[in-house]
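## Example pair
The file below holds two records. Each record gives the amino-acid sequence first, followed by its structure token line.
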Amino acid sequence: MGLEKIEKGTIIHKAGVDTVGTIEILVKGSIKIYDQFSSITISVGSFIGIVESPGKKYVYSYEALEDSAVYSYPFEDLTDIPPIVKSNPKIAPILAAQSVATASKCCDVYEKEYDDALSEYEKIIADYADYPSLCIKVGETPMIFNEIDEIIPPEKSQKIGEWAFPYIRSLKDNEALLKKSLYGINIDIAAGIVMSTFYIYENISKENQLLGEYRKALKKKTANFTANMKMLNAKLSDLEKNADGGAGVVTVVNALSTILAYSGVSPEIAAKFEEQIGEFKHNANRYDSEDEARALRRNLGNTFYEVFTPAFIKSLNDDNYPMEVKMFFMFGFVDEELAGEKNTRILYNMAKAYVPDPEGNVVTLYEWLKKIYNLEVEPSRNEFDQDWESYLREQKATGNLKQAQIDAMVNDPKSRLDFEIHNLFSLGNRMTFGRISSFVPVFDEMNVLRPLDMAYLTYSKINEYFANIRAVDYGVFCRQAVYSNPEIGVTQLFYADDITPYMILMPNVGSRASLWQEIEGKKRSTKARMLVSIFNTENTEECMVRLFGEFRWEMCKTEQGVHWNDVTDPSLTSMYCDYLQFFKKNSALSTENKEKLKTDLKKYSNNYKNVFIADYLAYVKFEANGSPRLNKVAREILFTFCPFAKELREKVSDNPQYTELINHYQAHIGNLAKPVMNMASKLKRDGIEIPEQITKQIEYLSK
């Protein structure tokens, strides 16, 4: 014990090896304190080993950065620290100041350690999100890594009070003043400062160790995925090098000839389509508004569907059709020169690596047409809002079809397919493309306004958008259903049935998403049908939120029927129509609010639905994140009929703009939940299995 000289580079104490038995004061030089992930440097007047536990192995290593000297004291208990300070009255202010300086460095290290851990977590999550796209680029089938779904982000400790960091940093910022006016006044003050800062950075040290353990566990748990990502990145790098050198690149030659030969169309149609594609790709002004260019695009579009239909029917009994044909079905690809060499390679790998949605909610147009052909779903409505049976009845009424023809067509796969191709495919393809007047159904590199891998929508991306919207507007896809089972005493129970819609990926590079129909026929328990380009060139998140807002509006209209705008029967649409129609007389709106509404109505051509969709976007994107965008009336209507999910409600509960709305909501939900809970309790007491519908409603009311 006593004064010890230490040469530069000497490890004074080694983590996990040496046992804590002393505590030192650094009287000369500088020392580095470090572990696997972080380090700090301390200078003269600092304690060495103060955060270590006597009798246990050192957690940190201590290394002399220069020739140094320390004064060593026995260290058996925390109560040894104050006497050490008091035995050095001359340097007590320096000990206090250096304790603060060390604590300040520990605060910085903790925040960096947390940020590093969070960055590692976020990189894994980001890589996992990009993983399907990367597989597509290199033509590999994505693997499933369930362990990635189990990892959680690091959490900031609640043991370190929010006051601690600003307190320490304030002491550090005023170090010169405090050394003169406080630390030196009394030895007990100096000892108290040492001990108070000690307790803070002892907690920080423990939390740093936990973050270190978190990072080790994260690395171990994600090792397989990380290795797979490295392999894919290496493969992608090789492909790019080969592409530059011209070797080993996927070669697609005469794709149009392959597609036409496979489709089996007549020589006349084949020659016409080849001529149209040739003229189109060699026309530098092919998207002009001139009559000649418009006619070419229109004729090419008509012939495209004449080729598509027979190719599709032939593929139904062929599991090994050419990759060019698959690219034709998925992306509208017809010609490698029109698509461009790089895009052709990307499309080839995407088609090769394509994996269907296991849940069957997100489907390519090809997969959707198979459902229609195989009688799994009914054909979609046409442009006049007629479903398949309504269309056939109308054809009979106008004399275009006889009853015998209708009987033969109603369940005929080919007739149903033709109806779907003529309506949902051809019209929906044009709608999602975004620029209706310049639409062509073939893939053209001139329309690629965003890198294909970024624009490509896979089922995992779409399902993520579904999850994201439910995390805000949890009831977005719910519709009211009725359950009755008198045998167990349930006469009538209204419950929320959450039905995920179909998302049909249209084979184009487009900018829009569209709600084709909110239900199938008149059955409210059926899935909505939504369309989006398989390559979306716009902000896909906003595109999806607008789409879900449109669904909210149309589903409400369907449920309300003729009362959809009747304010005496309160609903989302009726309340919004009343609000927009009579906003000038609404005393709850300021003059500024009214002027904005007047501008919005003019902007959206007095279309109430479009005004609502814009407000819904603001509600989901901004209001849910604590950034107010809506006026009081719009906010109240939206929260009443599209309430935030539980986690978000708790997050905004302190916001005075939402406090009253949340209180009303909770009272309302409590009234709805009570009879359902009583019903479940009674069934349980009677030994009767609780029906799924009751369980669903209890879960819904607890969200």
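Second record, same layout:
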Amino acid sequence: MTDSSNAEILAPMRGEIIGIGEVNDPVFSGKKLGDGFGVKPTEAQVVAPVSGTVTMVASTKHAVGIKADSGVEVLLHLGIDTVEMDGAPFTMNVAKGDTVTAGEPIATMDLDAVVAGGKDTTAILAITNTPKALESLSVNSGVANAGDVAAVAHLKGAGASQNTAQGTGKGAAVGAGAGAASVAAGSVATGHNAARAGNIEHTNVGANSTAQALDPAASNASGTTAERPAHLTGYDALAWDILNNIGGAENVKSVIHCITRVRFYLKDEDKANDSAVSNLDGVIDVAHAAGQYQVVIGPAVEDVYDAVVRQLGDGKAGGETASDAEPAERPSGVGGWLKWGFSSLIGVITGSMMPVIGLLAAAGVLKGILTMLTYNELVDPESQTFTIINAMGDAVFYFLPIFVGFTAAKRLGADPIIVAIIGGVLAYPTIAEIAKGEQTGSLLGIATNAEFFGIPFPMASYTYSIFPMIVAAWLASKIEPVLKKYIPAVLRMIFVPLIEVFVVSILILVVLGPIIMWISTGLANGIQWVYDLSPSISGLIIGGFYQCLVIFGLHWAVIPLVANDISTQGHSYLNAIISATMVAQGGGVLAVFLKTKSEQMKGLAGSAAIAALCGITEPAMYGINLKYGRVFALASVGGAVGGFLTGLFNVNMWGFTGSLIGFFSFMNPEGLDGSWTGFWIASLSALAVAFILVYLFGFKDADLATERVVEKKRLGRREPVAK
């Protein structure tokens, strides 16, 4: 074959041919997997676009790979995000190894079912070995029948016919290379992780590795190998090592991440080698809590998480499915069920709140800046400038039900868009106005201010709320499967959201919402009552022990209480105490930074101190403070002192962001008061006490020699790892 050789590529389906750049998926449209085109289909029949050998058929039947006789390697992806439909809309008439002729029927796609499932029907064809085989591609845009010439590939001569499985390259240059990382278990639908994968080098990633990537069932059954593949480097190598030491990919049900930890849900935690994982370069520690196997990474957590997802596939990313949420072993007894229920609740709160924590923190800083501008008379509270900036700070809180509804639905397996709409119902301005209305009657001795078809009920205000939306997402996850079971596929697109939004919204507004808000308000009032008994003693106790909750991952149960305080009262005394504990842990690790002569320890301690003073304590605690136990204990003494002074001076907090970086949050919007002064006294005292105690008694360089034998704080089980 010469450099001027051409190869015709047929339309795989009847419909409108569009350029690859018009495809509604950033991975394909960005040509991360190679050049190609899309088809907006009007008929279900799928034909082979080229003559050649089938190299892969996804287990979910949404994708097929063909190596053409010309040397072109073709990936045909039916629909966008359709991997989530578990093969239901597809029939596949070919298998790996089959020989096909261009124009030969190979599959069908039920277009109505795909649309009813809320997915895009666009069929996408990508030439995965574009850099090696393709000089250029001419696409014939417009309406075409299945089997018509849709594009002409202008080939690169001899290089086009060579087996790319023997080469090495980057991204799409190696055919399946980028595909293997990018579209694992359908990650092409999400784009974000796959786009990163396209720039990572791969070797020996020909058609077979493409097959394994798109079809996890085709992968190595054991999920582990004795030796890490030589081509994996950096975060990809670390991800492989982690997976290899937690029982392999097949032992992972799902994976999420927070600010510092990659959180795995494992089928069997006993298969994980805690010692091996915790001693990996790049891993700070391992923790067991809330039904999760938590690998503490620190600031690089997103990079490690992305690398893990590339190797697992996006089908296991972002939270559990409903079936995954079931415990591998059913608990027994009341205590067992309570423990499992509490762990599950913490897991749901973690998955629901983690994506919006940064937004809440940023909004808190913005509101603090506005307070400072107003206090210094740089912005008039009656001006439109104030209104605009205030809206920027308030929006995330006001519309919190929408955001939490979306993230909780993803966590619990419901449709995120539908549940977000339910959140919009709860935050709807007219509903918020009704909640402010005066009492119009009573029901069972409870004051009511609204009615639904003549039934009186207490309408609560749901802006700023969290718990009602978590319950709404749970209800939706139970109702949705029933609706899909009984509503015909052609009617689902309209009637599933219609019924779901109506039923769940009514249940939350009329029945469950008032109960949930009463409970959450009661919790906030209870905390306030304990605080009012003795603010200083409460601060002393909470300040001394709060960071212990962080060790066990149980602080996620407290965060919604803080958010509820801010939403119902506009401020939070509890969060002010928590802030002091962050500063104290930062002070402890700062002492290590200044005392040690080890350059490696200085680097770790310095970055951990900065993170703690910016409100993220895990790197400090897991990287140093807990590893050298006296550091954590003495830093906690500093936290107790800071908490005591916080309570003594009645320090209040009007924002979400704590530690030293959150000083804006301690500025009263109505004007600076004692909280501002008290914050600095308490925080600097916590910092000084923790620093002095650790510097004098908590750490010495001789401890570095015994670093590996110092017992780390574990969550959950503590039995020794089998040798």
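Notes on the second record: The first helix runs from residue 26 to 29. Residues 158-226, 319-329, 707-723 have pLDDT under 50 and may be disordered.
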